[in-house]
Each structure stands twice: as C-alpha cells, then as structure tokens.
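Marked as duplicate of an earlier ticket. Keeping the data here for the record.
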Amino acid sequence: MLIDLGVSNEYFLNTIQEKNFYLRRGAVKTDAFTLADIDNILGTIEPEAPSVNLHNGTFIPESEYVFTYNEVGKPRKTIIKPKFYKLMQEGATLILNRVQKSSLYIDSLCKEIAGVVSQETLGNGYLAFNPQAAFGNHWDCHDVFAIQLVGRKRWRIYPPTFELPMPGQTSKEFKSECSETPVLDTVLEAGDLLYVPRGWWHSAIAVGEPTFHVAVGVHTTHISTYVEWVCNKFLEKHLECRKRIGFSETDLHDIESAFERVRQEVMSEENFSLFKQTIVSSGRTSTKFDVAANVFGRGDGLCGSEKLSLSSHYAAVIDETCVVNGIKIPADSLEWKVVKLLSQQSGLSIDELSVKLRVPPASMRKIVSSLMFHDVLYRASA
C-alpha cells in the first residue's frame, strides 16, 4: 500500500471526516513519482480542456499554447512547447484534471483513498513554480486529500463559513466571509498528506521551486441523493402524492398528507437497503490491466506475498448481497469470504488469506486467479 494514514479507517470516518482538517507527515511513498512522470503524462494525453488547463489568475485560453493539426485525416491537438514553457515560467499553474487516468501511480493513490471513505474519487494534479496562489482563498464542494508528490507547497486552512456545500454551491460570491486568521499555516513536503473537508477555506501557494501535488477529490453520495431517489421511485404509487397542487390554504392539508408518505418511504429500512444495493451494484472501478496473469498465465505466476485489493469504491458496505464491479459473488462461498475479508482489510496477501480462511495456498491462488480474471480483485501497489 502507498498511503499510511496514521489512523484507522473507522477513526477517520467517525472522528475526522467532514469535521476537521487532518495533516499526516510522510504519509505517502513518493519515490516512484518524479517530474519525468509529468513529462510522460503531457506526452500521451490530448491537451484540451477540461483535461489540461493553464491558470494564472484566470484560465488561459487554449489557443495561446495549443495548436490543432491534421494527423492522417484526424484533427489532433499538441502543446506548443515554447509558449507553454514561457507561460509556466511567468507563473501559470498547470492543471491536469482526472490525471489518475494517465498515471497508474496516481490511480493507486485515488483507489486507496476510495477504500478509506467508500466513495468515488478523482485526482487532479497541479504543477507550479512561482510563489503565488493560483486560486486564492476558496472552498471546494467535495472533500480533498492533498498529497504532495514533488517539491513543497504552502497551505493555509481557514474555518468554514458555509458548512458542507453541495455541488454548485461555490465560494465565488463569499470571498469576503473568509477569516483573516488561518487555523493551519504550513508547508507540505513530498510525501505529506492534508485532508481538507468540503466547505473549509484554503489556499495553496508555491514557494519558488518546482512543486506538484495531486488533489484526490471525494465525490460522496448525499442524503439528498437518497431522498431524491426515493421520491422518483416510490411516491407516484401513493394517491396523496399524485394529487394536483392548487393555490388555496386548504391545499396545505393535502401536502401534509403527501409529506407523511414521503417520510414513510424515506425512513423505510427496505428502501434504504435497496438504495445501497443499487449504488454498489451499479458502481464500476477501472483497474489496471494484467494480461500476463489473466490471459497467458491465468494466475500461475502469482506469489504468496502478492497484496490484493477489491475492485470497488464501496468495499466497506459489501454485505450478503455481494456485488463487486458488476460481478455477483455467491453468498457463503469461498470467493465471498475472500471478498469479505478484503472489504475489511485491503492489502492482504494470498498467504494471509490462506491462513485466515484455512485454505491450502494452491487452492487460494486458484480462487484469487478467478476473482482477478473477473475484475473483482487486482494486485495492490507494494
């Protein structure tokens, strides 16, 4: 595993998430990522918004550093390197949105965070040099795990003035409400991790040296998501909810009757269980390919110390109705027991699973091989 959060997942979820910021020094192994990896990313992705942006107070028009040309009958885009380099030297910040799609290392970081919070994650990368705050003080509408990978960056955190903003509830019109006194003013070094809850004001400033961090955004399922799902799925079966709304005071009685039906449906344990099953069963996680094991070897080359993770954002909520990455696992089967163990402790090895479940190592390798083939498991980062 790449991340040492320093606390248990349970402690983080119950004590820290959405309640306070959290700083962990030396949380991440960064020796596998350098500026050369950013060169590789820039050399392979299509340089167009929103995947690639330059920002220097405002977003710089793509036409200033991107050229469109024809490649064997297909329009393509390329970065004009001299213009790009000059803009970066003048203080621009390079933004690589959803950069986990172009970096297996960053993808692994995102997946490990997803395993902690049991929610979907995306990674945005930020490369800068000049000491200025690209975005000023602002809040995000989702939790962020800022992971410093190259160089250093100064972070300031301020208390929230609008708690738990939803998507679209941005800080743009409320800049004057931000406190002048930060609750944290620190410099992150390579390997440091900083958790910033949604709604907490913050700024990130380069310190005059090359700096790159990835912001792993946590995109949560909200209570309002569940309520909306219930309303769309169940309310029209009730006569009280199918009535028209008039404009007299007597209509409030009808609304009250309808609201009682809403309350009943929202508070139904059966409906809530069905909602969770729907979210988990529809979730898909893109894992790295493993052709050698799954096409040519079918797991013959797996060693006992191989660390494994579930191919699911929602590992912690997997229950008897077990669906991982769209694959249903038969309840009480050995496969189900493997999945259940990994949902409780990601990164277990084949040997550890063999001991815990009292299954011979050769048999466990076959089980793991089958689960890998069906994209239920994948090899975790060392």
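See parent ticket for discussion. The mean pLDDT is 91.
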